[in-house]
Amino acid sequence: xxxxxxxxxxxxxxxxxxxxxxxxxxxxxxxxxxxxxxxxxxxxxxxxxxxxxxxxxxxxxxxxxxxxxxxxxxxxxxxxxxxxxxxxxxxxxxxxxxxxxxxxxxxxxxxxxxxxxxxxx
Length: 121
What we know:
Structural class: mainly alpha
Strand content: under 5%
Distance between the termini: 52 Å
Number of domains: 2
Shape: globular
Low-confidence stretches: 1-8
Mean pLDDT: 80
Radius of gyration: 21 Å
Largest sheet: none
Number of strands: 0
Number of helices: 7
CATH class of the largest domain: Mainly Alpha
Helix content: 55-70%
């Protein structure tokens, strides 16, 4: 009886995926502590640092747009990009933005980027 239950358990592909996610991703993460969400979701410290930097730049741009009361169309003109790019920025689509683009947008808005490098903890 027990063999049958084990054999039929994996006939559903969705169930197979759910078990894989639980056993390989979620279970190992339960006992670990991470400094940030980026450290938890990225494979390497370099990738996590890149995401942290991009997210900070995106938040600065979003905050500037909100403080100035700019519409997406107005912000696009100020930053020298299209309105859909501003929409992606406002929706937090981090994977669509590189560090260079974000720095260029901040400079176009008259904002200055400062960088502080510290030894990793």
